[in-house]
Design a protein that fits this description.
- By secondary structure, this protein is of the alpha/beta class.
- It is 44% helix and 16% strand.
- Helix 1 crosses helix 2, helix 8 packs parallel to helix 9 and helix 10 crosses helix 11.
Length: 335
């Protein structure tokens, strides 16, 4: 299938000139326009933008690409996207990829052929060339929760600052051996949380113990096994930070099965502030992230891009709060 780059190369122009020719939103020299249209015909190129130009309108359909809809954060994010989209007359097409790049590329190709007006991705990993290519081809694209080196419009939290604050908070409670249950470091949010954790320890003159860092933990079950293995190996933290709430749930189960008390023996923190965290035994202290607002911000930015507003990628970064609960409580009246 020909791309906008192929058309540009054959016509001897830039991809942006091809986009302007097709959209009709900016003047293009008559001879240049003729070369572009001739190249399009020769390559049988049928871009999304051309379809919109022919119809003198838009499809009012958007693609929302998520890595795992069973993860409790994504229904909250999707609701923020869908509420704003519906108010603006757009339909959201939900795509679940299970973090499989081939599935994601298949969705992209299918949605491109159905002329969606833009994409929101909550799936961008280290190997995200297909997303960058989509943007280069002229499609409005916004990333949600994840980021690609600020090359694409994104809506994220300050993961470094969040982990720094969580670690500093536990240090302030007198905890000195803090374990981190981290995720896939090829994703910027997890690498940034690791760096925030390390920086907080360094700033407080606490040595970094590699044995306290649990890498590549994907889910609740993985956290349960990893924390149990940590203690069974002889490493005994007095606090644990899990980089998502479900991992904190897995850690809590492991701690209890080991006969330890939360928070007397080990304090426990999560990330997300999922509703279930307040109903755990004990309720879990966590980093609150504004999921709905992030989804709403992502769709608003995408609609701006569809309208042609935004030459340089913009990164909207949300701050976070620590929701203090009994899992880090030291004494009566103190959380």
């Amino acid at each position: 299938m020909a791309t906008i780059k192929d058309v540009a190369k054959l016509a001897g122009v830039s991809p942006s000139t091809v986009s302007r020719t097709l959209s009709g939103n900016a003047p293009v020299d008559k001879r240049t326009k003729e070369r572009v249209l001739k190249a399009i015909k020769a390559l049988n190129y049928k871009p999304n933008i051309l379809a919109k130009g022919l119809k003198e309108g838009r499809t009012k359909a958007l693609g929302l690409v998520l890595p795992n809809i069973t993860n409790p954060i994504f229904p909250l994010v999707a609701r923020g996207v869908e509420d704003i989209a519906r108010k603006e007359g757009y339909t959201v097409i939900l795509c679940n990829t299970d973090e499989d790049k081939d599935i994601e590329i298949d969705y992209i190709n299918k949605l491109k052929n159905r002329w969606v007006d833009g994409f929101i991705f909550a799936t961008a990993g280290k190997d995200a060339k297909h997303i960058l290519d989509l943007k280069e081809d002229g499609f409005p694209v916004v990333l949600l929760i994840r980021n690609i080196e600020n090359k694409v419009d994104s809506v994220i939290i300050d993961s470094f600052k969040a982990a720094y604050r969580a670690t500093t908070y536990l240090l302030g409670l007198g905890r000195k051996r803090i374990a981190l249950v981290n995720g896939d470091e090829s994703l910027s949010l997890y690498s940034e949380r690791l760096e925030g954790y390390k920086k907080a320890l360094a700033d407080n003159n606490i040595s970094i113990e590699e044995s306290l860092i649990l890498y590549e933990i994907q889910d609740m079950e993985g956290a349960y096994k990893a924390v149990k293995g940590l203690y069974n190996s002889g490493t005994k933290p007095d606090a644990i930070i899990a980089t998502c709430d479900p991992k904190a749930y897995g850690a809590a189960r492991a701690i209890k099965e080991l006969g330890l008390s939360i928070p007397k023996d080990v304090a426990l923190m999560g990330f997300d502030n999922l509703e279930m965290s307040a109903f755990m035994d004990p309720p879990i202290t966590t980093i609150s992230q504004p999921w709905y607002e992030m989804g709403a911000t992502a769709i608003r930015r995408l609609l701006q891009l569809i309208e042609g507003d935004g030459k340089k990628p913009k990164v909207d970064m949300f701050d976070v709060d620590i929701i203090r609960r009994e899992s880090t409580k030291i004494s009566k009246g103190e959380i």
